[in-house]
Fold each of these.
Amino acid sequence: MSCGGGGGGDQDRHGLYHLARGDDAATGGYQFSSNDIESFFFSQQPVGIGGGGGSADEIVPYSSITDYLQGFLDPAGLARHLDVPSQDVPTKHQLSVDVRSHDRDSQGTGSAAGEGAALLTPKSSVSFSSSGGEGEGKSHRCKKGPAKEADEEDLQDDEENPKKATNKATKKKAEKRQRLPRVSFLTKSEVDHLEDGYRWRKYGQKAVKNSAYPRSYYRCTTPKCGVKKRVERSYQDPSTVITTYEGQHTHHSPASLRGSAAHLFMSPGLHTLPPPHLMPPGMFHPDLMSMMHMQYPNPGMYLPPPPMATPPAALQQHHFTDYALLQDLFPSTMPNNP
DNA sequence: CGGATTTGACCTGCGC
DNA sequence: GCGCAGGTCAAATCCG
């Protein structure tokens, strides 16, 4: 997926597009509504923009995420998506989309991730790595895991004949390896592992070079779902958690099946929200926004059908400026109605 | 007791 | 070829 070279956007010198509600929201401009949320996170509709796109050889495993991303990259596309005039789409940065191609091992490496985290506005930032695999300078190191399942017979041979195994390893080496699509999220949070609606099993933890914070490796617990995620804390901004998803879920989110808005936003990180009365009218809290990204990191990840044709009932019926709803969702952080 | 987490060992790929 | 770093495995341990 070649996100760079896409259309429009307020791209800074770091190659970051900054799109979000900025001063407009603070001054009572356009307000997010439940419909926006649906569009933002659940829509399967492509948001067309010019440029970008992958070459014929490039693996673009799904179109919806690409379109989804590109919708962010293109203010006009985002405007169409949100059904607002394009000039109303601000270029202030609350949501920053990293459209750079990530070098060595995506942005997940300590240095690269840290750099990205430092460059990006920490709150509510979304970083998408170039996921094509072929186009990347270096292949990923994952040989076990999914590949292991595919090569069970090979492994059996390997046990019987180590020499043969070596040959196979050499042969495999020559093969082009494909990297699964990766999507990274930068989230301000005090907790490392943010609740995202899926169940994960931790299978490893590694110290990251040049970072005081380890990187944790998680795998989706659902059988035959090979989705992995890495969680690490930015060493330059320890308050920022970098979550990188890799692969496609082959099932619905357990949380989405519950359809509970309360569960949707249930995350320890949310307890760090400032008092809601400090939020400007109509302002969609960036942390909350980020949590939603965490909950539905990638609409395209779900294989058919879409996980939720409609948002949870609570989201359909309320605006997020609805104080009563916020009180229901965040009783610990919501004082009585001001 | 079963599932999740921890953690050291191991594998792989890349740079020098 | 060697060392380094990322990524994974799997036994040990923890926990509800």
Amino acid sequence: MIAVSLLEEYGGIIKNYKSGDFIFEEGNRPLHYYQIISGEVKMNNYNDEGKEFIQGIFYKNQCFGEPPLFIDQMYPANAVAVIDSEIIIITKDKFLDLLKNNSEISLKIIKNLSQRLYYKSVMAAEISSQDPEHRVLRLIDYSIEQLNFKKEEAGFLINFTRQQIGDLTGLRVETVIRAIKSLEKKGDLKIINRKVYR
Amino acid sequence: MIAVSLLEEYGGIIKNYKSGDFIFEEGNRPLHYYQIISGEVKMNNYNDEGKEFIQGIFYKNQCFGEPPLFIDQMYPANAVAVIDSEIIIITKDKFLDLLKNNSEISLKIIKNLSQRLYYKSVMAAEISSQDPEHRVLRLIDYSIEQLNFKKEEAGFLINFTRQQIGDLTGLRVETVIRAIKSLEKKGDLKIINRKVYR
DNA sequence: TCCATTTTATGACTTAAATCATGAAAAACT
DNA sequence: AGTTTTTCATGATTTAAGTCATAAAATGGA
């Protein structure tokens, strides 16, 4: 998103997180801008019964957690490192200064937020009113479009576990497993030693 | 959002829509910026079985449908007038010019998108993994916070039909009716001749 | 290399919400 | 005012996804 050199000019510091570390937690007050240098971060919630819902998964060069920063609300979800990750962090004040002094960044932020809102809109409609197979397939197609899934001979390798797909679509693992099997039978995707291709 | 006078400087024209009229449809290419002068607009999808999902409801002074405009994607949902409405419209090009020449507007847009993303995040987690009563109550509380629901002696009047609540939460009308009844029994809200107060 | 954990898998069963049916009350047209 | 449509309401039934149990394969640490 924003050039690391520019972030460093505004006091950016790089922090290391181990797999599973929380970067911030639901209910915290937003005080920083976060951008991934390397690694992978998920934003998630846990409901009353402890079931996880993954809001999104973020990769290299992506930022996360800005919306609450702009509207002065508490974080609606946790941010957790999925693998060991390096994250560059600047304070809210410096970030707003940076925006003010670099008007072309605003458009970048707008586009980024728009992209995420688009994803949420598509998935909201899916989650609320489509059958499991439809939901899984939509998530897969959207992820191919937006994430850096590798194209191999068999198709795009879907780099999610069944559990992650469940947590992203609000389905249980078993249901995801059954949906994927059924989608394979219909020829909508391939399973080659447990990995899913589309 | 944006001053009407400023929109008019950039060629804004006011269009009238009757209740039920489509302003744009899912799959259309985004070519304009829309802002409500008066009336009420919903954005919705229909799934394969014809069930409606309401992405959001927008009121006076609010804009809608910008995300796809910024990222050059087709509209992911329809926009429909819920009651007779006046909408001011400017072309995409003029809108981008306006943004370029009025940098303070960018921050407004960012805040607006952030607010909507925040709503989507909260509701996504709710819809995917909470029981109906929880979902209904969350929608109601969020709507009180964000929309202009009137405070009366009995509490805030929830200005939604049961059907609308269902379409916003992905539940069926009957389920919403039962959830609301149950919530009333628990004392979480009041029903006074069919109207819901919180 | 070995052991613990995670991931994928499948069958049996349970359950909560959807569906279906029906009707009264209220709202919106004509 | 009268008629149509929408909204709210409730009971009975169905069903799809969740839950539970169990296990093999793969992965990841120690």
